[in-house]
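hi! just following up on the protien thing from before. the input was this:
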Amino acid sequence: MKTVSLGAPRSSTVKFHRPTRDNLVPIRVDIEVDGQRYRDAFTWNPRDPDSEVITFAKRTAKELKLPATFVPQILQSIQGQLAEFRSYEGQEMQVKEKIMPLKIDLRVNNTTIRDQFLWDIGNLESDPEEFARTLCDDLNITDPEVGPAIAVCIREQLYEIASQTVSAMREAKMSKKRRAPEFASNSKAMNNAVDMFKYFGSKGSVIRKRKEWYLYEPVVDVVPKEEAAVVDAKEQLK
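and the predicted 3d structure came back as:
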């Protein structure tokens, strides 16, 4: 079995940046007004002018034939999430060579996909969109909306990791500790973090053990559109 020498884990302090090449913000909108509901998930470039948010909200309401009352609600939701992201900008975070399991459990239209995989959160050049496209190609998923949904799900988990790291650094400074704790959080995502060096040892295998294969086997289920429509109708009533 092939082994790799990982050496000692490296760490550095950088300004807030999610572990991805493009520092996009995952946005999730779920709004209900007068019995009508709008739900969507997408990424947003935080460098885009605020006027783009207004344009997007108006265009979305028009294209989906939503009442005008949705526009301020969509606008408020997106701006609130962008403001939260910007509150972390300029803050310090510690980046260390780590891997952690990320999980996806999504239903997009009539396609359901469940999977988990290991992600190097120390790699600031990772590309969730490219990963999602490759995954869809490998699993023969043809619905063009599934890939973007997977990428948003990944970015949401990486965003939580980065923001919790910033919070840990803040708390360390306030308590005047000599060394900031990494990923000191009770969140589910943070508790899944695994140090590469501790996980594999100085010389460890990166090949999954046979008894662990089932844990990382993706599950894809495509149901008839009629069944998906019934599920959508039930979810609208929640």
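The chain is about 40% helix and 25% strand.
The longest strand covers residues 98-108.
cheers
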